[in-house]
User: What shape does this take?
Amino acid sequence: MSDLLEIAVVIPTFNERANVPTLVAKLDQALVGRQWEAIFVDDDSPDGTADAARELARLDRRVRVIQRIGRRGLSSACIEGMCATAAPVVAVIDGDLQHDETLLPAMLDLLQRDTELDVVVGSRFVAGGGTGDWDRDRVAKSAFATKLSRRVLKGDLSDPMSGFFAIRTDHVRRLAPDLSAIGFKILLDLMTTSSEPLRFAELPYTFRLRTEGESKLDHVVAMEYLIALYDRMFGHVVPVRFAMFSGIGVLGVGVHMGVLGAALSLGADFLLAQILGAMSAMTFNFFLNNTLTYRERRLKGFRKLFDGWVSFCIVCSVGLIANIGIAAFLHDFRDGSAAGSALAGILVGAVWNYALSSKFTWGRY
Ligand SMILES: Nc1nc2c(ncn2[C@@H]2O[C@H](COP(=O)(O)OP(=O)(O)O)[C@@H](O)[C@H]2O)c(=O)[nH]1
Ligand SMILES: [Mg+2]
Assistant: This one.
């Protein structure tokens, strides 16, 4: 038997402390006779998941821990874990025991035997697999997400949403610079990024019920998933962030008009009503962009929020001047139509606001 490391098992975790020892014991059983290592990638879980993993790691050199500070995100955690190993094959498995680790040796065998193969996916939707005791609501949501993802996928995967798979590590390293790393579904990201379709095989498994801890799949995650799909389909035309920023900008116009109307009807003069409208819209846009567009760099705490808000208002005020300046120039000196000139002004203003606020309001210093 060779000593060469065969497979790394990457385990993204957030608040999975109670599951760590069980999972390692199960890996030890499942991968008996194989050369493996386990890499926990923990986003500084408040419940001390990383400590629990390190405790095991001191006894068992096959266990390693990456503790990320100030960052969140399942996909990026998986990518970092996958790039942190010297093993030729890397598997990703959830840390909550919902995936069936006894499939790992078969995944590894397939990849070792068939050099034509790039990925082996654990699938809930091929014969022999299943979603276990999921409620109907969750089954329906998952089916919808799967259907959507098939539209961007080049292969006919039965379970592109699977978070359980094994892949050749050199593919990951090759694709890593181009992965979008947002969203929840790293497999989908890998498969859609590769210019040549990855050759895959599927093995059935049954999704288990979670017994410890709780699911992190929530509405924000669902939104991130949609964003990731958008990115794959249209991201090369209009970048995701700019699309979100502009969408929020349009909502801001609605806020502006609402406040303007309300202030006028309360008897304010136009200038005051207009100032109130603009301030409300900017404030609204600032907070919405802070929670959605720049979620992973969100400003927190009164001081940072206040500074961010001020810089955002300054950027937008300059953007407004540019907007009006360009529109007036096109209209008065280039004989542009009113609507066309206004639109051009708005576009320039939006790009300006986006570019400068991403640097000065949400930039990293
Ligand atoms: N590192 C890291 N792991 C995460 C994050 N969100 C979820 N996870 C882990 O990813 C795995 C799957 O997440 P889970 O919430 O169980 O998703 P579900 O099974 O689809 O409900 C679990 O091991 C989680 O602890 C995250 O932001 N960062
Ligand atoms: Mg889970």
